[in-house]
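Many introductory courses stop at the sequence. We go one step further.
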Amino acid sequence: MADYPWESEPTVILTGEEIIRQYHLQRIEIDPFSAEQVNPNSYDFRLGTELLTYRNRELDVQVRQPTERTRLTEAGLVLQPDRVYLGSTMEKMGSDHYVPIIRGKSSLGRLGLFVNITADLIDIGSHNNWTLQFHAVQPVRIYPGMRIGQVTFWVPVGTIKLYSGKYQGSVGPRPSEAFRDFEAPGSTDSPDHLRPA
């Protein structure tokens, strides 16, 4: 047996047909699910109906940041280049058996839209309407319900420990909670007691 089990195991990504099969076996959660959104080895997810923006122009990672919420309408919204926008997937997704990785769609990247700035890895066991981080190189109009990105599912190697972090159970976009990483271990202080933004 190899010292590192992945040396003898192929990297496995689920095909579209297998995504459908694992969904019906309830080993993958996608709600709502549509077979029309299945690709050869990914699933197209759609944009939810709300966006968050930060009120402050300068952000401090140790401070809870106030946000403003915008509800998207059929007219859509033009994203401006000098802002970060937080949206979410319309679908609640996750798996206790596979590792989801999310990416923007190529067709949107060609318009200068970053759909997920940095956090493409979803922990196994995370079941959420996943928050998406948008940045537009130039003004781009987006619409609720549009296909905004793709999720792939990968087979993990080793003992599985399910995610139980601070974003578990998110419904709609969630702002950064990076400030929690600066709290003292074992602290019982409410995040509201941190210095205000």
